Structure formats: structure tokens, C-alpha cells
Amino acid sequence: MSQQELKRDLANRHVQLIAIGGTIGTGLFLGSGKAIQLAGPSVIFAYLIVGIALFFMMRALGELLLSKEGYESFTDIAEDYLGPRAAFITGWTYWFCWIMTAMADVIAVGVYVQYWFDIPQWVPAIVCLLLLLGLNLLTVKLFGELEFWFALIKVITILALIVIGVVLLVIGYQTDAGTVSINNLWDHGGLFPNGMTGFLLSFQMVVFAFVGVELVGVAAAETSDPRKNIPSAINKIPLRILFFYVGALIVLLCINPWTQLNATESPFVKTFSLIGIPLAAGIINFVVLTSAASACNSGLFSTSRILFTLSKSEQAPRSFKKLTKNSVPGNALWVSAVVVSVGALLSKLLPEQAFGIVTTISAICFIWVWSVILISHIKYRKTRSDLHKKSAFKAPFAPFINYVVLALFGIILIVLLVAEATRPALLLTPIWFILLFFLYAFKKPMLK
User: Which sequence ranges are marked TM in the entry (predicted)?
Assistant: First the structure.
């Protein structure tokens, strides 16, 4: 069979919006409520710390991706620098991360549609999944278009919040919660009202909020000009973090004292309701719906590309590397969609705390993937100094900053172990890695 290659049909605007979509999601629109409840205003620093750490991780990924022609994702990088076992475990773990995230988000779609229509939540969930599957099977350009418009809705919503919030700050607007003022950041127990404990406990949801930031790396094989588009997208991450996370949260907390917010509702819905925008709840429900659909769309895209890459490197069944006439990995897309749909149908039988367990496991697995990228970059610097010297996109402060970020990840894992709410998920996660080690030893029969 002749070698089939993915099509480079993603333009610069697609890559830029995929990068934005990867840094704005359900974790911000919904999860920030829980994070604020735990940490108070200090959650701003948590988002800033994790965001900066992930920028340095992305710079390492960018240098690695551009160091060699033919890299299609970070699993190729892991195989080159850490060996086939690491590539196998990382690739399947990344697939697992996005499958779990997509399961949660496709169910969320069903819940959000129930806001308007009294129908079983599995109906819109499956309809959304089939629609996204059909569009992804057509061309990669359609994936880019979907993410472009999904991300645009998120951007407009946050931009509107920030602009309105600044105006309200200037005029000292009165809401039911009091005066809109920057003093609300510290007038209700200070910046760290729950101490360092609350601050550290917020990191689980903060990490989950950034899930998908590395998606631009998965899209590398299908961008028309990776040497231009990937550095451009990565270098804009700090500004996006400052604007979409730090800026939005500062405005939220100036309008709403943190004591007025809770984990069970979106702080965005609460804010738009307070400032008197008609149909605020419906507007934000629509935004959150598109955000969940966007996450599911990203999940289908990334899981299918990971299966394709694993198959090409003989780490997954050969059928997954078969492309359709539109240069899309059809078999891989179908398998991922089926697994997500089974999870969606079964997840309604789980108790409400299951979502928290799923997001925690997802965050832990993403920490593994991000750590592999950083460790691969350290190995690259040591063993391929010739490539590093020629690089036009060198990662700053490496390898020192790699070790700093890895240490931060270690601290976050310790916090997850200590915290009662996240400890079960952390203790369950090693089962997945043990399973992968076992499968790797017997993977040859699986590949036939």
C-alpha cells in the first residue's frame, strides 16, 4: 500500500483560532466557579502561574516540532528521544485524555440543550457527536472552520465581558452585590482569603482549564506553513492568557465579590445577570454549549490524529493509518467517536461526582503528556546540539525552565494526592499506565 499523508489544509487563521480555542474552554466558563470558591481572588495567580509554565512547555514543543521535517505530533518526538515505549504510552495516554474530555463535553451538550428543550440528554449528545463526526470525515479544512467559529464566539463573549466590566468600573456601577470596584479583589478577606491551602487546591481545575493548549502541536502536520504559523500561534499564548484568563477573572471579581460566587453556576452567567443584560442566562448557556461542542470537536480531531500517528509507527492497529479520499483518517475517527458515544450513554448512570473524577484524571494524564514534551526537549538539547544551534525558534531559558516547570507539575500532583476530593482519581490513574506497560509487551499481535 502506498504511503498516505495527511493534507496540509489548515491556514494561518485556523491555527491561530485553534490555539485560542485550546486555551478557552469549559474549564474557564464553568470550572472557574469552583476554582474561585476554593482560592478566592488568588485564583488569578494560579491561572497566571500555570499559564506561564505551559507557555514554556509550548516553546519547547515548538522548537522540537520545527527541528525535523516529518514530525506529525509529539509522539514522534517522544519516540526519537525517549524510545518507542515512551511514544506508545504517551500517544495512548493523550488519546485517553481527549476521549475522557470529549465524553464529559458531549454529555454537557445534552445538559445545555435541555435548558431550552425537554428531551433526554443523550439525544442531543449523540446528534452533536454524529454531526461533528460527519463534518470531520469530510476535510480537515472543515475542522479548522468549525474551530474558527467556535473560538470566535468565545472570544466575543469574553471581550464583551471585559469591555462592559471596564465601563462599569469607571462609572462605579451599583449592582445587587454592591459597587463595581477593584477593591472587591481584597475587601473580602484579602487576596488569599482561604490561605495557601485554598490557593493550592484550585490548581486541579486551573490545569484542566488549560487542557488543549498543546493542540496546535497535533495540528502541525496539517498546517500549510508550519515554520510560520506554529511560532506565531505559540508566541501569542502569553497575551491570550493575560487577556482571556487573568483579564476576564479580574473583571469578574471586580463586579462580583468572590463570596457571591459558587461552584454550581458559571460566574459568567452570574456576572451578565448582575449587570442587567436581558436573557443573560440564555446567551451564556449558548456560549457554554458551543464551548462544549468545540471541546468535543477538538477531541475527535486530536484522538483520530493520535491513532493515525501511532499506527504509522506500528504502535496501534494498521487500519488506523488508512486515509479517506479526503486525506482524513476515517477509521481512527470512527473508533474514537464510538468510544466517546459509549461513554456518553453510560456516563448518565454515574453519580454527579464522576465529572470531577474524570476531569482530575484528565488533568493528571495531560501533566504526563506535557512532562514528556519537556523531558524530550532536555534530551534533544543534550543529544542534538547541532539541531539546537540551527534552530530559528529556540525555547528560552532552557533547560533550566524545563526543570522548574516539571517541579511545578510534581507539586500539583502532591496537592492532588493530599486533597480528599482528588485523591481517588490520582490513585486510580496508575492503573491506566500499568495497563499500557502490559499492552506494550504484547502489542505485536494487536498490530496485525
Answer: 12-32, 38-58, 92-116, 122-143, 155-175, 195-220, 241-259, 279-308, 328-347, 353-376, 397-419, 425-442
Max CA-CA distance within the chain?
A: 69
- Write the CB contacts of 289 (distance below 8 Å, at least 6 apart in sequence): 109, 112, 113
Please list, in sequence order, all residues whose beta carbon lies within 8 angstroms of the beta carbon of residue 207, skipping any fewer than 6 positions away.
50, 363, 366, 367, 412
**Residue 70 backbone zone (phi > 0: left; psi -120 to 50: alpha; other: beta):** left
Residue 448 has pLDDT above 50, yes or no: no
Backbone φ and ψ of 107, nearest 5° = -70, -40
- The answer on pLDDT for 14 being more than 60 is no
Contact criterion met (CB below 8 Å) for 406 and 368: no
In this structure, what C-alpha cell is assigned to residue 196? 495557601
Q: Taking the C-alpha atoms of 16, 19, 21 and 27 in order, what is their torsion angle to the nearest 10 degrees?
A: -160
Rounded to an integer, what distance in angstroms lies between the CA atom of residue 287 and that of residue 73? 30
* CA–CA distance, 436 with 93 (Å, rounded to integer): 9
Give the DSSP per-residue string, 227-269.
HHHHHHHHHTHHHHIIIIIIIHHHHHHHHS-GGG--TTS-HHH
The pLDDT tens digits of the residues spanning 118-173 come to 887 778 888 888 888 887 777 666 666 777 777 788 788 888 888 888 888 889 88
Buried b (16+ CB within 10 A) or exposed e, 12-49: eebbbbbbbbbbbbbbbbbbbbbbbbbbbbbbbbbbbe
Long-range CB pairs of 402-405, under 8 A, 24+ apart, other chains included = 402/56, 402/60, 402/374, 402/375, 402/377, 402/378, 403/378, 404/53, 405/53, 405/56, 405/57, 405/370, 405/374
pLDDT tens, residue by residue, 415-433 = 999 988 888 888 888 999 9
The Cα–Cα gap between 160 and 447 comes to 50
C-alpha angle 244/277/44, rounded to 5°? 25
Helix axes 84-113, 74-82, angle to 10 degrees: 150
Identify the three-state secondary structure at position 4. coil
CA distances from 207 to 25, 229, 435 (A): 12, 25, 25
Asked if the peptide bond before residue 120 counts as cis, ω within 30 degrees of 0, the response is no
pTM for the model stands at 0.85
* Secondary element (H or E) of residue 120: none
Contacts of 242 (CB under 8 A, 6+ apart): none
Instruction: Inform me whether the pLDDT recorded for 69 exceeds 80.
Output: no
